[in-house]
Each structure stands twice: as C-alpha cells, then as structure tokens.
Amino acid sequence: MARPDELTFAPLGGVGEIGMNLSIYGLGNRHQRSWLAVDLGVSFGDEEHLPGIDLIMPDIRFLEKERKNLVGLVLTHAHEDHFGAIIDLWPKLKCPIYATQFSASLFEAKCNSERNPPKIPVTVVPSGGRIDLGPFNVEFIPVAHSIPESHALAIHTSAGTVLHTGDWKIDPTPIIGKPTDERRLRELGDAGVLALIGDSTNAVREGRSPSEAEVAKTITELVKKAKGRVAVTTFASNVARLRAVADAAKAAGREVVVVGRAMERVVQVARETGFLDGVQNFRGADLYGHFPPDKVLAICTGSQGEPRAALSRIANDDHPQVTLNKGDCVIFSSRTIPGNEKAVGAIINGLVTQGIEVITDRTDLVHVSGHPRRDELRDMISWVRPQLLIPVHGEALHLSEHAKLARAAGVPKVLICRDGDLVRLGPGEPAIIEELPSGRLYKDGSILEESKSRAVVERKKLAFAGCVFVAVAVTEKGELADDPEVDLVGIPEKNTAGEIIDEIVFDTVVSTVEGLPRARRRDPDAMAESVRRAVRATINQHWGKKPLCYVHVLTV
C-alpha cells in the first residue's frame, strides 16, 4: 500500500532527447496526488523526417486528466526548450505559472508578438525566493547558464527535498547575473537531499566549461582586428553574449545594429529588466548602411541556419537592409544544435564563397556551452550529496554517462528513466512504479496534431514518393463514360527509357478498368482499390518508388 506521503517524479519530455522539457512531481498516495509541473518546452521539427512541422511539444494528456490536482507550473528559465510550449498548451491546463522577472517579461513579450495573444497570467517570484504550492515548497536557487535568471529548484516536501537543477554550469565570471550559488547548494546538502534530478547535456565532455568572460575577451580581440564590416550571430536569448559583443564594438569604435525580430525582443526585455544597464543604445537595421564599414557591427539572428532568420537572408543577399561584401567578417558565437548542421553549413559555405571571413568555435573561443561538463557535475554531486541521482536533459548516451559518473562519485542510488516513467523517489526504495501516458504533439501550421495523425504520417510519404490523383467516370453498367483524369504530383515526368510516366499511368488505369470482371466494375470501391494497386505497381516498376494514390470513381 502506498504511503500517503509518497514523493514521485515523472519526465513527460526531455529525457532520452534534447529539448521539449516537462517534468512533474507528485505527492500523496496512488489514489490522490498533488502535482507540480516544472517547465513546458518545445523541440524543433526536422524537415527531413517531419516536413512542414515547425515545433514538437510534449503530450500532456495525463496532466489534463489531473488538472484539478495540478498546483502550478514553475519555470526554471526562459529558453524555448523549457517554456516554448506554454502558449499552445496552457489553455488545456489553465494552472498558475511562476517565474522570475526576466523569464516572465520575455514570456509576455513572446505572447505580445502573437497574432491573437492569449491572456496567460504569470506570478513573478524573486530570485532566491520561496513559494508554497499545495504540499510543495519551491525555492529558486540562482545558477549560471546562457540566459539571465536561470534557477535550480529545491522542492521541499514532507517526504524530503529534491534538487531539480534545470540547465546550469559553474561560471565564476558570468558577465550577467549571479554565479551558481555554491553556498546555498552546500547548505541543502548539509540538510539532506533525497534526490538530484540533473542536467546531462555535456556529460560526455571532460573538464569544465570555459567562462563567458573568456569568450568576451576573444570577441573583443577579433572585432578590434577586423577591417571591414562585422556581423555576429548568437542565440538571441544569450544576453551576456549580447553585452560582450556590445562592449567589443564600443572598444573598436563601432555602432551596434540589431537585426532580427527575436533579437530585438530580447534586447528590449533585457533593457527593461536592467541586464543591459550602462550599454550603449543599439541602432535599427534601417541605419546599417549609413555607417562606414569599419564603424558598424551587426548582431544577427540565424545562428542555427533558420531559413527566414537575418543571417540566412544576408548570406543569400536578399536582406532588404543589411549586406556583407568581400573582406567582411561573420562570427558564429554559438554551437550548432544537432540536426542543424546541414543548414548552418550551407550558410557558412555561402558566405565563404562570397569572400567573407567566417569565424566559428572550431578555431577561436567565440562560444561556450551553458551546460556543465564532467568536473562540474562532480562538484554539484559533492556539494549536494544526494541519496539518489536521476539524469535528465539528454539523449541515451548523455544519461548513461551521467549515471556512470554519479556511481563513481559515490552516489548511493542512480536510476535511469524514460519519458512517461513514474519514479518513486521515497520513502522506500526508488523504483519505476508506473507508466504514464506520454508522447509528442506536432505543431502543424496553427494546428496541434498527434504523432500518429494522418497529416503527419502522409506528409512523410508525400515528401518521399509524391502522389497520384485518378478520377474515373463509369456508367451504371461499369463502362468508362469518358477518359480517366490522371494528375501526378512530385513524380518524374519520364522513366529511364524516356517514356512519359503520365501516359503510362493513363494506359494502366484504362486497361485495369476494362480488365475487371463485370461485378467488380459495378462496385465503385472495388474498382477504386484495383486501380490504386495497379497504378502504384506500375509507377514502382518504372521509378522504383510507390507514391500515395487516391482514386475517385464517379457513376454517371
């Protein structure tokens, strides 16, 4: 029988994958639990496997069912993979949201950029503050990361304390915001921590992540050396990096021009919340052309190769206000997210072809990760001394490496779980005790689709092998009343022998209809199925692929 104060944890996204983070904590017994949700993020679609899908979100069926027991949603920070799904999914939950000022302000700006902005209230919590949500007391502990106001959450309950790290690193000189609060983390360890739910993103990398201050130094040197125009691209939300680039421009006597809507939005919020205090005013893209080449620096969106972002348009020479020429320089102050390598490579090649110098983290320290490497993970374990460690935020390899490291560091219990696993943290032996409904939702235009939805499944097939539409008009006796209509989409015009595939398919339709027994000709569904099979087989014979095929039989 479950104890009334059993504390449980379940990832509904973000475990076994990078992005789409959603964790839930439950307190109570098997029949009645209060739930606390942490983060509600997205991951991004991949045109190769999911054509037309922009965003992927966690399936929140379970939370919808438990809505009356959901005490709130708490945000660790304002990266898209931690808060990007709120606008689409919050209307299904309508629970209170809690975040610190920068995250709340950036979320408000994001809502305001929507066509019909939803009214989603967010309660602002001070950094280092504590709030009571049902049976949970949640404490916001500052940690360094690549966006202002990242927080680990100490979740205090009657069954013990859990440290949910969120995204973090150890950076004694983070440029913006507070360093990771080692003193408070050690205090928690002294008081006793039941479980550490920890970021595994860099668990395969030895050593320590360098500091933002070192990146700032490198960027300053590169900008000073540059002769022509300079463009820097980075994640829009990395305000410390924006500040470093602005300081580098100032030292080199250059004006800063901000290019890209996401960048403009973050700059505005960072100014409102004080993170760009003392930094010179930035100029709009419309003024870029007014400055001599050696007096301007553009900060651009598009570090991940996004096709409509500023840098992509500049590289393709179709940006209305910003151009680069031979001898100019582009600094990629970012890491390419796995899956985006082709898109980023295409932009870099486009720039190099135009004679533009491209600088990346392959040759210069122009980017550092916001996540802990192995020595930092060891430090966190030694400060917190958890009884149990569960690796999250990572693919299978990252989770496995983090788990091995934790065991070697002397953590008594280490448990690897997957999305949907409900884990008992305590009291008693930690274990996976149940499987909760979990999965993915795809944002397709303005519609949310399940992963098995017809649109998603068929889109992949369409992208791979095209589609054939056939319309056949027959008399009541099953004779052809007119020539069939055949329309091929995404299929080659001719086969290897130079024969027109359109005509081959037309002949196949006619011969199939005429060759059917009279009884099947009088059954429109049977005729349609026969034609569909014959057309797919014929195209496969001439092309080596089977397209989707839709046959409409009309009786006249």
Automatic annotation (TrEMBL):
Coiled coil: none annotated. Keywords: Cytoplasm, Exonuclease, Hydrolase, Metal-binding, Nuclease, RNA-binding, Zinc. Pfam families: Lactamase_B, RMMBL, RNase_J_b_CASP, RNase_J_C. GO terms for molecular function: exonuclease activity; metal ion binding; RNA binding. Residues 21-219 form the Metallo-beta-lactamase domain. It comes from the Bacteria. CDD domains: RNaseJ_MBL-fold (cd07714). This is Ribonuclease J. The lineage of its organism: Bacteria, Pseudomonadati, Pseudomonadota, Alphaproteobacteria, Hyphomicrobiales.
